[in-house]
Design goal:
123 residues; alpha+beta; 4 helices; Ubiquitin-like (UB roll); UPF0125 protein ENI96_13825
Length: 123
């Protein structure tokens, strides 16, 4: 016979929600599946995941966080299936990086990387 206590424990476990905590560096990525209680906040999930111990460079006072690519506050309550993301600080100005990529792309295309198709002049 099951006690009321055992039934209560089962109910709590059944009510846990599945979320993921993600952090990526250029050379290493982590996607940590986690079961948390309803009402768990983004920050609580990060703390429970162990990601801070695995990546000591993460500073929640500095690093921005979000859910599915959208910046969110640390006190945001999670929904089932949410992917919590910890973002690294930018190392380059996005405008400058775009300009650099565009310039490199133009230089690469100047060499005429296109092969003439059959029937084109010169074939």
């Amino acid at each position: 016979m099951h006690s009321a206590n055992a039934r209560a424990r089962c109910t709590v476990v059944d009510e846990l929600i599945d979320v993921e905590v993600a952090y990526a560096k250029p050379e290493e990525q982590a996607l940590i599946p986690l079961r948390v209680a309803p009402g768990t906040t983004l920050e609580q999930a990060i703390l429970q995941s162990g990601v801070l111990e695995r990546f000591p460079e993460i500073d929640l006072a500095v690093n921005r966080v979000g859910i599915f690519g959208k910046v969110a506050k640390k006190d945001t309550v999670l929904n089932p299936g949410d992917r919590v993301e910890i973002y690294r600080p930018l190392i380059a100005d996005p405008k400058e990086a775009r300009k650099k990529r565009a310039a490199e792309g133009k230089q690469m295309r100047k060499g005429g990387g296109r092969q003439p198709a059959k029937g084109d002049a010169g074939s």
